[in-house]
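Entry type: protein chain
Record version: 2
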Amino acid sequence: MTVLMIVSSSEHAGKTMLCAGLGRYWQNSGRKVGYFEPVFSAEDKTASEGKSVALVRQVLASTETAEAISPLVLDSTISLKAAFASASQDKDIMIIEGSLARAELVASSIGARVLVVHDYAYDLEIALPEYAKLSGKLVGIVLNKIPAKKLSSAAKAAEDAMAKVGLKLLGAVPEDRILAALSVGDLADVLQGKILNNSEKTTDLIENFMMGSSTFDRGATYYQRKSNKAVLVWGERPGFRKAALASLPQVALLTSTRCVVISDSAVPLPAIQQKALEKGVPLISVPGKLPEVITRLEEAMAGISFTQEQKMPHLLEMLPRVFNKALLTGEFNHG
């Protein structure tokens, strides 16, 4: 059985994305794949129970319970081995998600190899000495969230830096609008908003954001500049409130719009709500002035995680282009 532990040294680096993507990829090649995320303290147990475990269970159609997949092991090698043995029965490949700090313990206890996901926003050369401590168990590093214009140069620089400490680059993943997208439901949650209509559209992915035009003379041409977007409009600003609650959403609804967000807990006129219902575009009324709403949105985007299964087709299409073939084979020697 192949056992691969995927770790990172920072939050939101892309571990769950890689676990889900590789797991489904290997399943599609006919292998039985399991997922395991051990928890080492009661405090971490509460924090870990959530979207990552639920997503990977869903992606892999796992029949194991969440408790079996993400057990509380309390730093005990014995309990870790027992829990892993139970979760890995009849599997060809086991994927373990965890932190860099726990990599040595877990890898040594259950014979796993380790893959590091490194966020491009953090200095790679500073992190490499820490990664190199796992060189006996490390299969390589995936560099994630690279600005598209820097992809080639960043990959070459990373390969050169890694070669100096005997490590390999196994993947270079560019920033991607779809992989970084929020769903309509996620957007409503982070903005503490109320979805006024078309709640069945909460899983739709938002690839772009636009500010509602602040003038009355801009029409569909303005909103056609971006597709699959969320439009943020004023609900509070004097002089624009009437536009925000009347003409602007109506114009935006004529283009490729995932949802319309209206600040200050404002509610559009009934005619606009009816038009949105007909077009299948959710209207989200959110508290706070628009600058506050934008700040909350920026904070949410900075900490976005891969938690939507509907991103999987796009991710699976990307894998052969951005990952080393050796990683995609799933054949790692145990060490």
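Comment: DSSP finds 16 helices and 13 strands in the chain.
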